[in-house]
Structure formats: C-alpha cells, structure tokens
C-alpha cells in the first residue's frame, strides 16, 4: 500500500467515524467469502455501515479525530478487523448475535456507545440487550397510557352499571 493509499484510507475511516455515536470493532476472521458477503448484506439492510480495515490505519484515524479518545479500544486491534457504525446502540450487537446462531464468528472485539467503552466478546449479550431510544420511548408511552386506560375503563364500567341500574 502506497503512502497516498494509506492517507486516503485513513481519511475514509475518519469520515466514517467523525460524528459516530455507536462504533463496534469486530473480527470477521473465520468467515468464508459467502458468509462475509451475507453479513455485509444484513448490515446494509439494517443501516449499519461496515468496513474491513487495517488495524494500524484504524488506530491512526482514531488518534486524529477530535473529541473522542478511543485509546481503550486499541488493544483489541489485532487480526482481522471490521468497524461497524450505526445509529441504534444495540443494532450491531444484535446483528452479530443473530449471525452467530449459524457460525462462531463474527466476534466482538470492542464497542463505543456514547461515552462508554465495552472491551471483549463477553459484552455482546449486554450490548444486544440494550434498549434503543425508540424502544425506550415506546415503553414510556405505554407506561403513561396504562393509568389512563384504567381510568377510562373504570368510567365506562361505572356508566354501564348506572345504565343497568336505571333499567
């Protein structure tokens, strides 16, 4: 790889990570070409950007970014590395978890969500079980609607009882 190609690759990685709030680093090692292609397709369908990168270039790109110190992740940059960037915090984790129902890989190396780092594949279950913003809002709306439904139901029952008593 020439120096120009490295500079271009680092810039592409920086562009991908620039405003990312959800960054996963995974190992696709052990996946054959067909499985890797299938994994990429599934990531694309879920609006997760996936890029296989060289470890040294990924680290250099992260070091050049302003705002976030990714140094906690650097120790995981060994072997085959793919970065996954998404909008939904648990999206990449769920993708990896579901894909692993068929194969031992991909494996989670590390992840960065908002302000928190997760290092190691043992965090995959925790990350997959995180609730997305949309799921949390849905639960809150459901909780807020529940008492209202109970009150309306009680009022309707009271009206029915009055009607039956008047007859």
UniProtKB/TrEMBL annotation:
InterPro entries: Ribosomal_uL10 (IPR001790), Ribosomal_uL10-like_sf (IPR043141), Ribosomal_uL10_bac (IPR022973), Ribosomal_uL10_bac_type (IPR047865)
GO molecular function: large ribosomal subunit rRNA binding
GO CC annotations on file: ribonucleoprotein complex; ribosome
Keyword rRNA-binding among record annotations: yes
Key words of the record: Ribonucleoprotein, Ribosomal protein, RNA-binding, rRNA-binding
Entries under Pfam families matching the protein: Ribosomal_L10
Subunit annotation: Part of the ribosomal stalk of the 50S ribosomal subunit. The N-terminus interacts with L11 and the large rRNA to form the base of the stalk. The C-terminus forms an elongated spine to which L12 dimers bind in a sequential fashion forming a multimeric L10(L12)X complex.
NCBIfam families: PRK00099.1-1 (NF000955)
Known function: Forms part of the ribosomal stalk, playing a central role in the interaction of the ribosome with GTP-bound translation factors.
Family indicated by similarity: Belongs to the universal ribosomal protein uL10 family.
Protein name: Large ribosomal subunit protein uL10
